[in-house]
Design brief:
By secondary structure, the chain is of the alpha+beta class. The protein has a single domain, classed as Alpha-Beta Plaits. The chain is built from seven helices and ten strands. It has a four-stranded mixed beta sheet with strand order 8-1-10-9. Strands 2-3 form a two-stranded antiparallel ribbon.
């Protein structure tokens, strides 16, 4: 079986956020104030040195699909709501999730989540603070008799949100419900259709590469052989499968 991994080329990544917009579009994540998405605005920015000799780095943050996934170990239900697939993807089942957030607490990459005033969380919780896609339930017309309301657009499209992507996936609802967690699934529904994750496909600089790390001829394997790589928080022992190579300041 394949073991899927992602390589992010930091020399090519400038933190433009196209991956976040693509992720939000593909995965029908909620239109809320927290900007919930698996990639949305999830970056670590680093600045080292003293002016004018400064070095800058942008690290996009997402689920690391760890080999030793702490979120899977922490999930208390049987069978587990958070689990590993045969090809190494850390997946989440909507139906089995009880919303306890144990996975979020256990994940070393979610310690800076919204509850603690942080900047990112690779595992998101769907609270009931606001209905998802409120705009598309609003019947107000900006110009009465001239423009469409959000509710009318959703009705004519036959979906909420109107641009909803149909996953056709046994583990995920197209739009996740309240009271459960969700996270990056490496666009498992797209991989099953021989397509790349949408963040990979839409990255304007080609900074993201996904492939089988156990295949010596795959792009990810070749890149990891060619360049030195790093992972986030290796000391946690989770063995992340998201790797960062090169850097923005290289000539």
């Amino acid at each position: 079986m394949a073991k899927m991994a992602m390589v992010i080329n930091l020399k090519k990544c400038a933190g433009c956020g196209a991956c976040g917009i693509a992720c939000k579009t593909e995965n029908n994540t909620r239109d809320r104030k927290d900007g919930q998405s698996y990639n949305w605005a999830d970056f670590i920015f680093k600045m080292d040195g003293k002016f004018p000799d400064l070095k800058f780095a942008t690290y996009p943050v997402l689920c690391n699909h760890c080999t030793n996934a702490a979120c899977v170990d922490a999930c208390p239900v049987t069978p587990k709501a958070m689990f590993k697939t045969k090809d190494g993807i850390t997946m989440h089942n909507d139906e089995r999730c009880i919303g306890c957030r144990s996975c979020q607490d256990a994940c070393p990459y979610s310690v800076m989540d919204q509850r603690e005033g942080g900047d990112y969380s690779v595992i998101s919780f769907n609270s009931d603070e606001a209905a998802p896609f409120e705009y598309y339930r609003d019947k107000t017309e900006l110009i009465p008799g001239c423009t469409s309301s959000g509710a009318e657009i959703a009705a004519k499209a036959g979906a909420t949100p109107p641009m909803m992507t149909a996953y056709m996936h046994p583990e995920y609802d197209n739009v996740r419900r309240e009271g459960i967690v969700e996270k990056c699934i490496l666009c498992s529904h797209r991989l099953a259709d021989c397509k790349e994750p949408y963040c990979v496909e839409t990255c304007p600089s080609g900074a993201r590469i996904v492939g089988d790390i156990d295949d010596p001829n795959s792009k990810v394997s070749i890149l990891l052989k060619t360049y030195e790589s790093e992972v986030l928080q290796p000391e946690k022992g989770t063995k992340p499968n998201v790797y960062y190579i090169r850097n923005y300041n290289m000539k």
